[in-house]
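FORM 7B: Structural annotation worksheet

SECTION A. Query
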Amino acid sequence: MAAAGAPHPDIESFLTHLRFERNASPHTIDAYVRDLTQFTTSLASKKRMDLFPDKIEPIHVRQHLASLAERGVARSSLERKLASIRTFFRFMTLSGRTAANPARSLRSIKKHKPLPKVLSESEAVNLLIEKPADLTRVHRATLTALHARNAAMWELLYATGIRVSELVGLNLDDVSIRDRIVRVRGKGKKERLVPFGSKAAAALVAYVPTRSRILPDAHQDDDCVLFLNYKGGRIRTRSVERHFKKAAAAVGRAECTPHTMRHSFATHLLGRGADLRSIQELLGHEHLATTEKYTHLDFAQLQNIYSKAHPRARK
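SECTION B. Predicted structure
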């Protein structure tokens, strides 16, 4: 019997499998913990925990999801929760702890996937040259360093298409300005090399020497970190998102996030003739299908251009 508040022992075994055999990220593991704990809590409220895990049937999973739907949980969240339960029971089946996967026969919840937001090439350029408005109150000794840091972050995001989580994890020795290559640690701790251009290289050349204005206050071992916060520690994802939001708002695109730069990177490459396989490698997508969404986005842009330009397109 699991201690109060602790995950069921079989769930703990599954989490260990994810952590050490699948190299799942802490974010992914936290999502599984939430989804599976929610499922077992639902079972406990109906006095059905004695059925978990080997006597759970499809009806129990279906009732759980139906209950969440009645409470207004979004379809995208229901899909993720079903996937979490299905993956857990797949592990249980393969490890011989249960005879069958009760979630296997349940149909996936279809959901509409909106096309990702992207910046036009001119909007991206405007954002890259925009001076961050939120740095005006910073002490003058670090103002230039933080301004240069933000400029380097935005240039690198757009030049490489890396995720913001990958950006904040970069160390100095991950970047070769001379060779214009960055070593990125992506999902599942997989490494990939991504090239970048002259503009990003110039931004890094301008930023790196200014780190010494922040570094005196750095935490122990943070002297290897590429992008520092104003206290001298590794900048966090939320801080990058907050700074980017203000920079995007300054060019009239307040709804955009750092991930918008990733979408823009892929879309602009595709629009200029890059092939999907190459874009897949640069983005670190495991499956080509994940990259193919950009073909739909590019076609949507073509439709928009057509409707504006063709004399017979307008009503």
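SECTION C. Observations
Confidence is low (pLDDT under 50) at residues 132-138. Residues 9-94 form a domain with the DNA polymerase; domain 1 fold (CATH 1.10.150).

SECTION D. Sign-off
Analyst initials: ____
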